Amino acid sequence: MPELAFFSGTMDCGKSTLALQIQHNRSARGLMGMIFTRNDRAGQGRLSSRLGLVTDAIEADERFDFHAHLVRHLTAGGRVDYVIADEAQFLSPAQVDQLARVVDDLGIDVFAFGITTDFRTRLFPGSQRLIELADRVEVLQVEALCWCGARATHNARTVGGRMVVEGAQVVVGDVGARADVGYEVLCRRHHRRRLTAAAAGAGPLSPDVPPADGRPPRLGGTAPGGPA
Ligand SMILES: [Zn+2]
User: Residue 68 in contact with residue 91, Cβ under 8 Å?
Assistant: First the structure.
């Protein structure tokens, strides 16, 4: 049975690396994949991983219709055995519905990869729709780590080095062009306290920076302003 599978996690959890691995394994078996992405860090029409791997992909912008595209391709005599959709958090709910139709009506496996929640800890619309529709949701096991060493479960956005919790969900054409915008993965506790690595490094909470009086650092102790 073809399926719609959603591989989810935080930033830095290895989603794109797994997408490329699935593509490699299947093409090595002679299967034909069609790869889509949006706003990949490597630019338009590219799917890349932080480990340096990259492959060509079809850029699926907000007007793109996955189902219609696949139907056109198949009608023209093309072959597709599976579909990979990376950066799926950026898809609209309607586009995720199209992916479900690709599975159900065309009998093609769809593997979607995406970040679950944004920097405000809210579900991306595309990820929400995938959780609602997917036959299978996998939380990736390659764990990103917070600066404190705990499992990083949340994405933080920084502007000018300070963590922010308000603003547009997607900063289009962002990080490269706007060097003041950055992202960092944190555990929930440090996300709630808005304590990024840089902010923690400036104070006595960092495990690497002992306080000036020479006492051992208090790992994960009280945040500035009071106890947790
Ligand atoms: Zn932490």
Answer: no
Neighbours of ion ligand 1 (CB under 5 A): 146, 148, 150, 187, 190
**Ligand 1 centre and the CA of 148: distance in Å?**
4
Which CATH number does 4-139 carry? Answer: 3.40.50.300
This prediction's pTM: 0.77
Q: CATH 3.40.50.300 residue ranges in the chain?
A: 4-139
58-62, 91-95, 99-103, 218-222 — which is least confidently predicted?
A: 218-222
Distance from Cα 141 to the centre of ligand 1, integer Å:
18
* Cα–Cα distance for residue pair 105/213, rounded to 1 Å: 68
Which residues have a catalytic role annotated?
87
